[in-house]
Amino acid sequence: AQSVTQLDSHVSVSEGTPVLLRCNYSSSYSPSLFWYVQHPNKGLQLLLKYTSAATLVKGINGFEAEFKKSETSFHLTKPSAHMSDAAEYFCVVSGAGGATNKLIFGTGTLLAVQP
Amino acid sequence: NAGVTQTPKFRILKIGQSMTLQCAQDMNHNYMYWYRQDPGMGLKLIYYSVGAGITDKGEVPNGYNVSRSTTEDFPLRLELAAPSQTSVYFCASSLPGSDGYTFGSGTRLTVV
Question: Is residue A18 within a helix (H) or strand (E), and if so which, with residue range?
């Protein structure tokens, strides 16, 4: 069965410093992995996705993530945080192979950006 | 380009009342999903549908029902509201083989 574990429920950084949000996954299949962002009282927006192409995936707003099979990790990074990055971030794995596209969500990491 | 539209945005129900959360998409997506989001729990799949006339249970289906009479619409029904159903509900859609979902903006439901 697929699952994801987000290692930090809260992360706080200063504006202009690097962001690291950690995610480990478990999958019986070659996984598809995603990061979604949710700003307060908003829906979810896709940041980036890994689907077995390049292991370093670039997303929107300067975020990127690296798929490391040996470490079963898919950490999200950004070189320099901006105030507008404050939001909740979800690491997501695509469910078991088949036609249903079911997504399995981690419990989320709340990112705070201090001025 | 409406995408996925959910109504209502907010609702307060009394215990035992029923209601239907509406979800409509205009992207001709075959697959549609209902998730609930509770603090610290991420999103949990309630029901999903791979096409008109086809629905299936997700991880937390108890207390809910769905129907899919058209490609566009995927309503979620609560028959006897309970406080445990207080949550934020998200509808989403996707194409077959596509790994990206389009999410609606959510419905915040409180059962008192």
Answer: none
Do residues A91 and A33 lie in contact, with contact meaning Cβ atoms separated by under 8 Å? Answer: yes
Give the one of B42, B96, B100 whose C-beta lies nearest to A105's C-beta: B42
Nearest to B104 among A9, A32, A43 (CB): A43
Q: Phi-psi bin for A83: left (phi > 0), alpha (psi -120 to 50), beta?
A: alpha
Residues B40, A108: C-beta atoms closer than 8 Å? yes
Distance of CA B68 to the CA centre of its chain: 12
User: pLDDT 10s per residue in chain B (112 long)?
Assistant: 679 999 999 999 999 999 999 999 999 999 999 999 998 888 999 999 999 999 999 999 999 999 999 999 999 999 999 999 999 999 999 987 766 789 999 999 999 9
Query: Which residues does chain B have within 8 Å of residue A3's beta carbon, measured at their own beta carbons?
Result: none
Q: Which residues of chain A lie closer than 8 angstroms to B90, CB-CB? A: 43-44
Tokens of A2: 């697929």
**Bridge partner list, B42:** B38
Rounded CA gap, B104 and B25, in Å? 9
H/E element, B27: none
For A83, the 3-state DSSP assignment is helix
- Select from B31, B27, B69 the least CA-distant residue to A95: B31
